[in-house]
């Protein structure tokens, strides 16, 4: 027969286990359930039944796919993307409908992913600015229109935000960037956004990636971009950006990719460019850049350098021959003069285009055989693969 003390201990353990179980299985909060059901009611088509398990008679914390709750029964995760994978399959589906403003009532939500649903339409509800605990926010690859809500300035805990591949318009609220010091990744590409890049971008001190290509941004690149020391990926291409490349860009010592092509940038490539010691991929083609290439460019770690269709002049720096990791070098349609330095024979490039410049002299012996088209439009060049040089 068990002693009283052992019985008490057993009873206490049962109570502790029951309490712990209760904390982790508390039913979905009615406010959250109502918000999610309202979202479902705004969906017109759900061909693969992503929301089939969302039923008013069941517990959203336990039985609803794509929903997860914290220990108090409040929804912290809403994940219903149109492109997702399982252990053995990849699913690509869609949902048609609008985003219910009621989602703003999920006040403890930390992770929201409604990306790649392809046919979410309408505007982004301003009520989503109430989700002040949100850290990860994905609405990309839909058909959303209208502006980015100014209420997003309250999303101060965001680490990743992707609104790309939609039809958003208007400018980026300057106040939004002012308060997002935790933001690490910002994706707004392939929209119809316009206006300048706000100078408040300087407050994004945790930013590692910014991709806003394929919009209608205008004005200049803020000089404050140099203060974002953690940046490793910058894509501002295919916009209407003007002005000079700021000298401060050379302070981005962790930058790995810099795409500024298809804009209207002018002035010279700043001498600070060589300070981008980690830069591997640089595309600055289709601008109005002028002047020469910095002689210190050979100190970099470049793998791809594309400067086509600018107004660059001067001689090609001998130091380019030090870029032994370079696999693509394209400088066509500029005004480079003088000889191709013999140091270029050190390069391991697989793609080379020096056509339509003003280069002269004998082509050095590259490690890879290139077609004549790589050198055409330079009337002063000779040697393989062009006609032989004339001997005196």
TrEMBL record:
Keyword Membrane: yes
Signal peptide span: 1-27
Keywords on record: Cell membrane, Glycoprotein, Leucine-rich repeat, Membrane, Receptor, Repeat, Signal, Transmembrane, Transmembrane helix
SUPFAM superfamilies per the UniProt record, alphabetical: L domain-like (SSF52058)
GO cellular component, one term: plasma membrane
Pfam families, alphabetized: LRR_1 (PF00560), LRR_8 (PF13855), LRRNT_2 (PF08263)
Localization terms from the record: Cell membrane
Record has Cell inner membrane as a keyword: no
Segments forming domain Leucine-rich repeat-containing N-terminal plant-type: 29-69
GO annotation terms (biological process): detection of stimulus
Membrane topology: Single-pass type I membrane protein
Family, similarity comment: Belongs to the RLP family.
Record's protein name: Leucine-rich repeat-containing N-terminal plant-type domain-containing protein
Native organism: Papaver nudicaule (Iceland poppy)
């Amino acid at each position: 027969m068990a002693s009283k003390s052992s019985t008490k201990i057993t009873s206490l353990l049962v109570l502790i286990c029951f309490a712990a179980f209760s904390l982790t299985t508390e039913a979905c909060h009615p406010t959250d359930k109502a918000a999610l059901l309202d979202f479902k009611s705004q969906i017109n088509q759900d061909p693969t039944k992503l929301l089939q398990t969302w039923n008013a008679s069941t517990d959203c914390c336990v039985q609803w796919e794509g929903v997860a709750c914290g220990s108090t029964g409040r929804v912290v995760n809403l994940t219903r993307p149109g492109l997702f994978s399982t252990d053995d399959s990849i699913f690509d589906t869609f949902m048609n409908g609008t985003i219910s403003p009621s989602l703003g009532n999920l006040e403890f939500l930390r992770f929201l992913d409604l990306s790649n649903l392809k046919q979410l339409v309408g505007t982004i509800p301003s009520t989503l600015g109430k989700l002040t605990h949100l850290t990860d926010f994905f609405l990309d690859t839909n058909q959303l229109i209208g502006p980015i809500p100014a209420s997003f300035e309250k999303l101060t805990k965001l680490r990743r935000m992707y609104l790309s591949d939609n039809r958003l318009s208007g400018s980026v609220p300057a106040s939004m960037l002012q308060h997002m010091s935790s933001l690490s990744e910002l994706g707004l590409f392939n929209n119809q956004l316009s206006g300048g890049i706000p100078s408040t971008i300087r407050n994004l001190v945790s930013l590692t990636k910014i991709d806003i290509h394929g919009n209608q941004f205008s004005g200049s690149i803020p000089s404050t971009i140099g203060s974002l020391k953690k940046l490793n990926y910058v894509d501002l291409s295919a916009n209407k950006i003007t002005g000079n490349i700021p000298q401060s860009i050379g302070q981005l010592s962790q930058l790995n990719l810099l795409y500024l092509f298809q804009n209207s940038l002018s002035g010279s490539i700043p001498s600070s460019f060589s300070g981008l010691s980690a830069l591997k991929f640089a595309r600055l083609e289709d601008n109005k850049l002028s002047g020469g290439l910095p002689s210190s460019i050979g100190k970099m770690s470049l793998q791809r350098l594309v400067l086509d269709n600018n107004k660059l002049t001067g001689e090609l720096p001998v130091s380019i021959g030090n870029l032994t990791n370079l696999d693509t070098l394209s400088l066509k349609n500029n005004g480079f003069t003088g000889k191709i330095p013999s140091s270029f024979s050190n390069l391991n490039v697989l793609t080379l285009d020096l056509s339509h410049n003003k280069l002269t002299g004998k082509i050095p012996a590259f490690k890879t055989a290139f077609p004549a088209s790589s050198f055409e439009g330079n009337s002063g060049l000779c040697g393989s693969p062009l006609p032989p040089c004339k001997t005196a």
